């Protein structure tokens, strides 16, 4: 029997669906079963989140892709102050669940957890998302100590995500180490979760929300803006480099006082930090003149880190190609692999879901000092020497052309360079690219599909290359995936 609360939630769900802009998230009709599309697996352990929802892994039945499912129990719904809350978790209300769904449906960024499907029935609301196999930042800090550089690499990804969130006129409000996940086992690629408190920015926000130890001073005063997210990120960075949180107290009022006075703990770990790091922390944790995410990304510490990272990446790139001789030719198989990989990059790049895109664009900009979006064999050696400030490894620089110039034109374009270097091993991304190319949805792509999508003039050459390299001009998903992932320039 349908309760008054359930009818209220159904109406709100339909209203929310109608208000969401174009999205790749599938918001299923009420009553749809998650088990039709996914095989539900074992529970996932988490620090504190399981008190609000149940987390399990799941497998897409058709695509065999591993994902996570977050299930909110709603059968015990009850009206409370013109909204619906739940007996089993009174801190959660239905409005917060809808906030999370709406925000994740409209936000699309490589450092934000991706929402694929939403199911709603009389007992549960299920959110199917990315599976973050690297676990939580909370767990990493509990088990290990992070270096200053590793901490900064994580922090930059958080700030990049905040910049994007704010550009879409959202404020997260719930950033903390428990809401930072890693999509990879190396714990390098960040995914932000915890969007139930995310709201649209429409003037000052007038009520408290968030984890107290990460709340900005103005949040305690019930009068704040989206810059509260930059403060929370600063607390996360402080926690990573110092090994403890900057503001601590078991008493809420005492904690509020310490935060509003910026009275952070100056431990021995703090004192041992480099001066530039301490100066940076003080700046990003300013009360009145706190920099925005965009301004933070322009600060000297960030620029220095990115510059050094680019230099190391260029050196590594030089070393990886040292065995290639000038007269070496790519096999047709390798040439086809890279052609398709570049095509996949061009398809996915506008969707803002490729994880290492910012870093690779920074690397390209270091090499392309003229800003021409093309590297010529005649100038690449000089460009390498300018970046490294010495001739070390630059004698190999001309080999970049040999490595990336698939059509022997004596140059390499930005799309070719980034397309061949970007990480395209994520099966979710590959499946999305394949489905975009598969116009007639028959599970097969051909040169004609590339021709339709790219409106290219290279149809005959691609047909010939696919026939010579693969023995056929038709590719199913497995063949397509193998070609894209088989040849990878590290």
TrEMBL record:
Keywords: ATP-binding, Calcium, Kinase, Nucleotide-binding, Serine/threonine-protein kinase, Transferase. Residues 34-302 form the Protein kinase domain. InterPro entries: CDPK_Ser/Thr_kinases, EF-hand-dom_pair, EF_Hand_1_Ca_BS, EF_hand_dom, Kinase-like_dom_sf, Prot_kinase_dom. SMART domains: EFh (SM00054). GO terms for molecular function: ATP binding; calcium ion binding; protein serine/threonine kinase activity. Residues 392-427, 430-460 form the EF-hand domain. Signal peptide: none annotated. It holds the Pfam family Pkinase. SUPFAM superfamilies: EF-hand (SSF47473), Protein kinase-like (PK-like) (SSF56112). PROSITE patterns: EF_HAND_1, EF_HAND_2, PROTEIN_KINASE_DOM. Its cofactor is Mg(2+). Belongs to the protein kinase superfamily. Ser/Thr protein kinase family. CDPK subfamily. PANTHER family: SERINE/THREONINE-PROTEIN KINASE. This is Protein kinase domain-containing protein. It comes from Stentor coeruleus.
């Amino acid at each position: 029997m349908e309760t008054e609360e359930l009818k209220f939630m159904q109406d709100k769900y339909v209203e929310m669906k109608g208000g969401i802009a174009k999205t790749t998230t599938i918001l299923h009709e009420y009553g749809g079963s998650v088990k039709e599309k996914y095989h539900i697996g074992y529970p996932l352990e988490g620090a504190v989140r399981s008190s609000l929802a149940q987390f399990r892994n799941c497998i897409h039945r058709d695509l065999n892709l591993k994902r996570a499912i977050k299930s909110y129990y709603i059968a015990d719904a009850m009206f409370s102050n013109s909204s619906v809350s739940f007996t089993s978790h009174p801190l959660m209300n239905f409005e917060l669940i809808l906030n999370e769904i709406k925000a994740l449906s409209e936000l699309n960024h490589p450092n934000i957890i991706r929402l694929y499907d939403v199911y709603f029935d009389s007992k549960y609301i299920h959110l199917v998302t990315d599976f973050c196999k690297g676990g939580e930042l909370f767990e990493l800090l509990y088990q290990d100590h992070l270096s200053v550089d590793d901490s900064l690499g994580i922090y930059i990804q958080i700030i990049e995500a905040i910049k994007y969130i704010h550009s879409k006129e959202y404020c997260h409000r719930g950033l903390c180490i428990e809401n930072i996940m890693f999509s990879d086992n190396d714990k390098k690629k960040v995914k932000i979760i915890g969007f139930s408190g995310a709201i649209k920015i429409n003037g000052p926000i007038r009520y408290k929300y968030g984890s107290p130890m990460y709340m900005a001073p103005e949040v305690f005063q019930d009068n704040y803006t989206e810059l509260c997210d930059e403060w929370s990120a600063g607390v996360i960075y402080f926690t990573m480099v110092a090994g403890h949180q900057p503001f601590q107290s078991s008493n809420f009022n005492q904690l509020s006082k310490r935060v509003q006075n910026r009275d952070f703990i100056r431990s021995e770990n703090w004192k041992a930090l480099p001066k530039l790091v301490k100066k940076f922390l003080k700046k990003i944790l300013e009360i009145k003149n706190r920099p925005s995410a965009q301004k933070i990304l322009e600060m000297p510490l960030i620029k220095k880190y990115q510059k050094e990272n680019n230099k190391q990446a260029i050196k590594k790139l030089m070393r990886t190609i040292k065995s290639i001789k000038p007269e070496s030719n790519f096999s047709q198989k390798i040439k086809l692999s890279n052609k398709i990989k570049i095509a996949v990059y061009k398809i996915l790049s506008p969707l803002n879901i490729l994880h290492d895109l910012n870093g690779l664009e920074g690397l390209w900009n270091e090499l392309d000092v003229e800003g021409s979006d093309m590297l010529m064999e005649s100038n690449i050696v000089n460009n390498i020497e300018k970046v490294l400030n010495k001739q070390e490894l630059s004698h190999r620089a001309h080999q970049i052309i040999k490595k990336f110039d698939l059509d022997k034109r004596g140059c390499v374009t930005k799309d070719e360079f980034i397309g061949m270097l970007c990480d395209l091993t994520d099966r979710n991304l590959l499946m999305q690219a394949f489905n975009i190319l598969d116009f007639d949805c028959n599970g097969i792509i051909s040169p004609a599909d590339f021709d339709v999508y790219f409106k290219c003039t290279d149809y005959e050459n691609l047909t010939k290359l696919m026939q010579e390299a693969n023995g056929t001009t038709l590719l199913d998903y497995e063949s397509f995936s193998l070609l894209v992932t088989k040849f990878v320039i590290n």
